[in-house]
Design goal:
single chain, alpha+beta, 5-stranded mixed β-sheet, 7 helices, elongated
């Protein structure tokens, strides 16, 4: 009987303080839910970091156009990703620079190449003057060799260099990195759909937004790498040949006078420098003659 009365008293107290009991239950639920969400997102982040860390460096360097020194070169890949570039310097006959420039532009136009930048200047004056032009060109790799051969025919080739880089492994790593990011986005979307608390949904929505931006950046980076592979880069320099009489001119009268004065001064310096020795030699000769007597 006493136990029943005690239980009734406890239930009565809980009934009188029901609001406090509800608040305690809600706090427990929020704490458990928050810990669960935090552990899930932390797991997603840590698993992503472990999987994608080796590929971030490759993607960043490849998208900037730099070389990536890897331990391997992805020999299992049949579709090789190779970038090519060349530098050509040619000299054209004097007075024919305009014709050479027009020929160059015709080659670019007929091959559907793109002139990214150009710089044409005239240096010197009179007979010492000459024209110089530099061009930065992008060429479809299917026409790369043919176009370079045509460029070489424009003038006399003074220098030519070519380089190529195999970026297959970097490209493969970049693709894998993108797939990992997309997989991470799917996990975030799944967690968002399963979340029940408003705070969790807001946090996940922000992460999804940032993840979508990152994926867009990675996709653009891969496109940039594809462009580097599909188009070769060629730097072309055309220089007009200098005149055979360049640098040849009659000296001015003032220059002649200056040279004459300079020569006379040099002679005076020489005479005064040997004068003491000449006097000493004369004295020695007189002494020698006096002794011989």
């Amino acid at each position: 009987m006493t136990i029943i009365v005690t239980l009734k008293e406890q239930f009565g107290r809980i009934k009188d303080n029901w609001l406090i009991a509800v608040i305690i239950v809600l706090l427990l639920l929020v704490s458990l839910g928050g810990n669960k969400f935090s552990s899930i997102t932390n797991y997603a982040d840590s698993s992503y970091s472990e999987d994608s860390a080796p590929y971030k460096k490759d993607l960043a360097a490849s998208s900037r156009g730099g070389m990536v020194l890897n331990e391997g070169f992805a020999p299992e890949e049949q579709d090789r990703k190779i970038t090519k570039g060349a530098s050509l310097s040619s000299e054209v006959k004097r007075g024919s620079f305009s014709d050479a420039e027009q020929k160059f532009r015709n080659i670019v136009s007929s091959s559907s190449a793109l002139i990214i930048s150009e710089n044409i200047n005239k240096y010197g004056q009179g007979r010492d003057s000459y024209m110089y032009g530099s061009f930065y060109v992008k060429i479809d790799m299917s026409k790369y060799s043919s176009v370079i051969s045509q460029f070489k025919d424009i003038g006399e080739v003074k220098s030519f260099s070519e380089n190529s880089d195999d970026i297959t492994e970097s490209y493969t790593n970049a693709e894998l990195n993108l797939e990992l990011e997309k997989s991470r986005l799917e996990r975030y979307n799944k967690m968002y759909n399963e979340a029940t608390l408003v705070g969790d949904k807001i946090t996940l929505n922000d992460r999804i937004f940032e993840q979508e931006r990152l994926i867009k950046y990675l996709e653009d980076s891969l496109k940039n790498i594809d462009v580097r592979v599909e188009y070769g880069t060629v730097n072309v320099a055309l220089t007009e040949k200098s005149s055979e009489y360049a640098g040849i001119s009659l000296p001015k009268f003032s220059s002649l006078v200056k040279s004459l004065v300079g020569s006379f001064n040099s002679l005076l310096y020489f005479l005064f420098s040997i004068l003491p020795w000449a006097i000493a030699a004369g004295i020695a000769a007189l002494i020698w003659k006096w002794v011989k007597r």
